[in-house]
Design a protein that fits this description.
Blueprint (H helix, E strand, L loop, with lengths): L12 H32 L7 E5 L6 H9 L16 E7 L7 E5 L7 E4 L1 H16 L10 E7 L6 E4 L13 H18 L4 E7 L10 H4 L9 E5 L2 H4 L6 H8 L16 E2 L18 H23 L5 H4 L4 H46 L3 H24 L6 H4 L3 H8 L24 H17 L8 H8 L10 H33 L1 H11 L8 H33 L5 H4 L3 H9 L5 H5 L19 H16 L4 H16 L7 H40 L1 H15 L1 H5 L1 H37 L1 H4 L9
Helix pairs in contact: 1-27, 10-27, 11-14, 11-17, 11-25, 13-16, 14-16, 14-24, 15-16, 16-18, 16-24, 18-24, 18-25
Pfam family, one: Dynamin_N
Protein name: Dynamin-type G domain-containing protein
Length: about 775
């Protein structure tokens, strides 16, 4: 009986090698998929990111040198000062058959396109970019330089080398360097925000209590849970320790100095030998193989120096933290683990992006199919109706548009649309106006501006009147040389009113025009939000915007002209029934000039406030005595009232009509009349202006604008439809957009399929047996 079925079949060396090769191939496939994903994320600014190692350190911590040591060859511009002004993304792939670095440089215009470049060409490109940015106003750029490398010494890693952090000296003379330091810190902090990135935090210090780089890193990763701390330049630090206890603390820092929750549990320690590869007189290594050997030799020497300093042999755990090779192995295994963990999470994100791109392609295809005259006209008319609907909604009131983006406080409104400023040049405190601090738009903002106008103009007092103004206004009549103080008061009052109120008309028009013009961008936002915006038809939209702005401007000017006519008529001819709002008080005031003491000493029979230095505010002793004597004589001889009345009338005529010497009584009469006339003009002006702006500026937006826009639209359709919608250029643009979207869709589909296949293999039993591939060292 044969026993072949019961004897387990031995695995040959060839089969083991084949399985090993398959495992390595699977790793390469996953790395390649992630490299494509990273390029896609950079190009499309998509929300997903591939796991990568982000190198962060100070300007002289040896970042670029460490990256070169990890790669196994030199390529960057290494030295003092700022040598990295753009982040450099290195997609590294281990290839034992590749004896020399095989490099591809990602195109700045299309990151998916990688052009083959020699090592020297990539070095020249990086140095040229650094020099170019050094001359720019912004000497740093967040746009990554993408390099793909295959080499026998490369690990399977994606590393992003960032510009070195700067620690400038204080003082005004170092302001330029301080500005650069803030720019670099902002750039690096933005890169660290990506949760998928493993942060490689470099510290060049022998004292762990000094957290130069960790201070920045911990602002993003407070627990250092995704941060690996690396102490660089170990070979220069070992001689600094005077006793073994210092070395012990340095190799195993206490929790008080370095949080034990950091990734990898404890820091790594590396040294990179100085010297460049080349054939020049200043080159130290003739080939990258020599550089690689020097890195390995430095690692052995560092371990020997530490053991000599400690007086003991390092443990295996300690040796696993010393040297570039140990860091490289840890990073590779860690990144492989992150890759596997991220695959199930990446697949739904790619599916979402795929569906979004399909919708985008459908939208472009529909726009292309609608590029005929009838459909374009219909879309234009539909946009016209929707635009007017949004305008009406904004005037009536809505909360759809965010106030923080489109609203204006009263202070913002004054800055952008102009302030109400009187003849004295002073502005009314904005805090006293209701809702001054609220960010308003549309009808609410219009109402607040009108309320401010009403509040400010309603509180205006008549400007001061001088004696010289009164005398100059008297002049000479055409038939006698007497004085006519009623005419004098009218001349002064209308001049003061015209000069006071006319500027407010222009200011009100400018303010309301600013508010109404703001309705256009807010309406466009609402249309875009609801997907009703005519994207791509810029010429048509500019024509609609131009028609709207022209209508609002012409309507405001017409309304302001009507208000100016009212102001001109009110300040050209005084109608007492209109201008004198308190004739009873004025009659009492004039009757009092018979000489009674009550008039001379009364407070204010007209109901207005006289300034302390105003005429009639004080009377001399002689005048008071004369009044008392006159009153006494009147009381004694009450039977001669007619004669007394005639005497008083004669005295009044003598002091007002026949006398050019400006008496206090005449001055008070003029002042009282001017105040009455000014008050009447102010009240009429305020009511008229508010009514006219509401009727002839606001209402036309509602009832006249629709017909005007429709007429403008139809005229445009009759002229030249192609020039209005720019059909030729639009078709070319949409064709290009469709082609690029189709390419994008194919790329996403290809990457999505790669991740789906990888996920199936990761979940299969056969692939699970190959999770521990052979060392790639």
């Amino acid at each position: 009986m044969s026993s072949d079925s019961s004897v387990p079949k031995s695995v040959t060396v060839e089969e083991m090698a084949a399985e090993e090769d398959a495992a390595i191939e699977e790793r390469y496939s996953l790395y390649e998929a992630y490299n494509e994903l990273h390029a896609l994320a950079q190009e499309l600014e998509t929300p997903f990111e591939a796991p990568a190692v982000l190198v962060v350190g100070q300007q002289t911590d040896g970042k670029s040198a460490l990256v070169e040591a990890l790669m196994g060859f030199q390529f960057n511009h290494v030295g003092g000062g700022t040598k990295t002004r753009r982040p450099i993304t290195l997609h590294m792939k281990y290839d034992p058959q590749c004896q020399f670095p095989l490099c591809h440089l990602g195109s700045d215009d299309d990151p998916s396109v990688a052009l083959p470049k020699s090592l020297s060409q990539i070095q020249a490109y990086i140095e040229a970019e650094n020099m170019r940015l050094e001359q720019e106003p912004s000497p740093f750029s967040a746009k990554e330089i993408i390099v793909k490398v295959q080499y026998k010494y490369c690990p399977n890693l994606t590393i992003i080398d960032t510009p070195g952090l700067i620690a400038p000296a204080p003082g005004l003379k170092n302001r330029a360097l301080q500005v650069q330091a803030r720019a670099v810190e902002a750039l690096v902090r933005a890169k660290m925000q990506h949760k998928e990135f493993i942060i490689l935090c470099l510290e060049d210090s022998s004292d762990w209590s000094i957290a130069t780089t960790r201070r920045i890193v911990m602002q993003v990763d407070p627990e250092l849970s995704r941060t690996i701390v690396v102490s660089t330049k170990l070979d220069t630090k070992i001689p600094q320790f005077s006793c073994s206890s210092d070395v012990e603390v340095f190799l195993s820092p206490p929790a008080s100095a370095l949080d034990s929750s950091l990734l990898g549990d404890s820091p790594f320690f590396t040294s990179v030998p100085s010297g460049r590869v080349g054939y020049g007189h200043d080159s130290v290594y003739k080939s990258n193989d020599e550089f690689k050997q020097a890195v390995s030799l430095r690692e052995i020497e560092d371990i020997a120096s530490l053991e000599k300093k400690l007086g003991r042999v390092l443990t295996k755990q300690e040796k696993n933290r010393i040297g570039v090779s140990k860091l490289r192995l840890f990073l590779e295994e860690l990144l492989w683990k992150r890759y596997k963990e991220s695959v199930p999470l990446i697949i739904p994100l790619l599916g979402k992006e795929y569906r979004s791109t399909v919708r985008k392609l459908d939208t472009v295809s529909k726009e292309l199919s609608s590029l005929d005259e009838a459909k374009l006209k219909e879309r234009g008319r539909t946009f016209h109706d929707l635009f007017l609907t949004k305008l009406s909604l904004l005037l009536k009131g809505t909360v759809v548009a965010p106030p923080d983006k489109f609203g204006e406080t009263l202070q913002d409104e004054r800055t952008q649309g102009g302030s109400f400023v009187g003849t004295d040049g002073l502005q009314f405190p904005h805090k006293l106006i209701p809702n001054a601090g609220m960010r308003l738009y549309g009808g609410a903002q219009y109402h607040r501006a009108m309320a401010e106008f009403r509040f400010l103009v309603g509180a205006i007092k008549c400007p001061p009147i001088t004696r010289e103004e009164i005398v100059n206004a008297c002049g000479v009549e055409d038939i006698h040389d007497g004085t006519n103080y009623s005419r004098t008061a009218c001349v002064i009052a209308v001049a003061k009113a015209r000069d006071t109120f006319e500027p407010f008309l222009h200011q009100l028009g400018a303010r309301l025009l600013h508010i109404l013009k703001r309705l256009l961008p807010i309406s466009v936002y609402l249309l875009q939000k609801e997907g009703e915006y005519l994207s791509g038809h810029e010429v048509f939209l500019k024509r609609v915007a131009s028609a709207f702005n022209s209508f609002v401007e012409s309507t405001e000017k017409s309304c302001r002209d009507k208000c100016m006519e009212d102001l001109a008529s009110t300040t050209r001819y005084v109608t007492w029934s209109l201008h004198n709002k308190n004739r009873a008080g004025l009659r009492q005031f004039l009757d009092s000039f018979g000489g009674t003491e009550q008039v001379a000493t009364s407070g204010n029979p007209l109901g207005f406030s006289l300034p302390q230095d105003a005429p009639g505010g004080t009377t001399d002793t002689k005048s008071r005595s004369d009044v008392k004597l006159s009153q006494l004589a009147s009381n004694i001889d009450s039977g001669s009232s007619l004669q007394t009345t005639e005497t008083r009338l004669a005295d009044l005529l003598d002091s007002t009509l026949w006398n050019r010497k400006l008496a206090p009584s005449s001055e008070r009469i003029v002042y009282a009349l001017v105040q009455q006339i000014f008050q009447g003009i102010r009240e009429y002006f305020l009511a008229s202006a508010e009514l006219k702006f509401n009727c002839f500026l606001l209402m036309p937006i509602v009832d006249k604008l629709p017909a005007l826009l429709r007429e403008e639209l139809e005229n445009a359709f009759e002229d030249d439809l192609d020039s209005i919608f720019d059909i030729t250029n639009l078709r070319q643009s949409l064709d290009q957009k469709k082609r690029s979207t189709e390419i994008e869709l194919r790329r996403i589909k290809r990457i999505k399929e790669k991740f789906r296949v990888m996920n199936e293999k990761l979940n299969s039993h056969e692939f699970a047996q190959n999770l521990n591939p052979p060392s790639l060292q």
